[in-house]
Amino acid sequence: MNLSHSAIILTLTFFLFLPSSNPLSDYTTLIYRTCAAQTLNHQFSLTLNSLFQQLIAQSFQHKFFRTTEAVDDETAISGLFQCRDDISKEECFSCVNLLPQMSNTLCSDSVSARVQLDGCYLHYEIEETAGESRSNSLVHRECGKPVMEYVKFKELMEEGFATLESGILNSNGFYSVNYRSVKIMAQCEGDLETCDCSSCVNDAVLVGKEECGTSLSAQIYLDKCFINYNFYGNSVPGARSNGNTERLAAIIVGGAVALFVGFALMSMLNSRFRKDEYE
């Protein structure tokens, strides 16, 4: 009994100090949302809910779907969803299932809205206004931590962006590449023509260079496409080194704590064994 109890303690201690494996990205994370100021009426609301159900049903088989629902003889709602091409169909279905409720919560009673998660997005609007926004309209951008010296960094990103622009031109609207120490991705709206897709991505790259030019990561969302990039690995040209220093210090402290706890447990177990021998 004592040995079993001791084994359980040692096993729990071992798993307690195993390094965590948190995912780099959660596809259900909210990136941004846009909501129209104009509100909808009851009939519009009922039609919108019907449209949401159509989109959810289609997300089980497709990663992009656009449809239209008539509100009355004069008005209709155009809606679509799209998932990132690098997530599975099951993940796409789970992601899209979250969007209607999030839209109702974040954009309650709006006649048009867009809710963008990391792995998928939903967009609906009155059909007569659909397509009025231009493919190069910036709707959201996030720039990551800056670098101190960016000459080499800028050279590397120029090469990476050139690879991205070439790759998207010869793709089906989605392109992802690990270029040296950076992961770069681009995706266009599912029914966008190749030329328009390439033009949109080129515009997004220009925004990235102008507004996030010295950032280690960025997310640029235009109306009809998005790009993002993120550095990985231990060596980044021109990056501040304090992050690595803090990480090293955390590892040392964590190791010291683990050794101390392990030593204390072993001492306790040895004392218990000695006591059992005398009894």
From TrEMBL:
Lineage: Eukaryota, Viridiplantae, Streptophyta, Embryophyta, Tracheophyta
Alphabetical UniProt keywords: Cell junction, Disulfide bond, Host-virus interaction, Membrane, Repeat, Signal, Transmembrane, Transmembrane helix
Keyword 4Fe-4S: no
Endpoints of the signal sequence: 1-23
Family: Belongs to the cysteine-rich repeat secretory protein family. Plasmodesmata-located proteins (PDLD) subfamily.
Origin species: Vigna unguiculata (Cowpea)
Domain Gnk2-homologous: 26-129, 135-234
Gene3D superfamilies for the chain: Gnk2 domain, C-X8-C-X2-C motif
UniProt protein name: Gnk2-homologous domain-containing protein
Pfam families xref list: Stress-antifung (PF01657)
